[in-house]
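Can anyone check this?
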Amino acid sequence: QARNNAGNSANYIPRVNAGMVQVNYTVYTFELAYDIRFIELEKMKKLTLQKSLESIYQNVIMNCWNSYVEQVAYFGAEGSHGGLFNSDKVPVNVAGLKKSEILSETVTDAQLAGIFNGILMQACTTSNNNFKVIPDTFLIPAWLFTVLNGRFSNLYNNSLLDFLRDHNVITAQTGKPITITLRKGLDTLGSANVGRIVAYKKDKEFVRIDMPYPMKHYITLPNMERMGYTSAFVGQVSEIQFPYTNGTTDTASPVQYYDFTA
């Protein structure tokens, strides 16, 4: 580093080399359509509805689309590398306590807090205190969420869950609370199938999912075979992306899994 100082005797200025790698991600196309028969449209003219029939169909289709996007984002599509919950590209660690210990009556608040502070301290060490990549979002199993939310202070004005969001090693340094959120799909994940914590930095630079073509009504045409109108909807969504995660051995990854043992 001393050689980087300008004006030394050799006037030597080091050069830095960098490279780029292009990664292609799979994009999935989701298609749905509905038919409204001519005769049904004629009948509808005699009725007064709060919503049009088309609007009702569109709401159903958008709900299907949202469910599909959630599936791709959290668990991946068939043949993919997985989603945010189960990607084969994300490092897997062991959580600080066993599930049986957490559910026991003898576990202390300090031990439960240690699960999250341990994760954050590990991230501080591996990232050299780079707060840009240290996790600020924790997705946890429902059973762990229930335990944390069921423990209250002596004055019953704060739960342990609320306390941890504002009192942890990262918030103490940045002043920003962390997010701890329940995800039922994590209950049976992990190496022992008893639960997993997903810790990540919530920033599209590190975790992202793209929609090249958001779900929308594409076209409506007469369909004489069905004696009605057919309306088609199309949308595209990509698989989950971790641009700065370099495989399961990447200890500095901004996305980490912490699996519970029984």
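Reply from J.R.: I decoded it. The chain has a mean pLDDT of 89.
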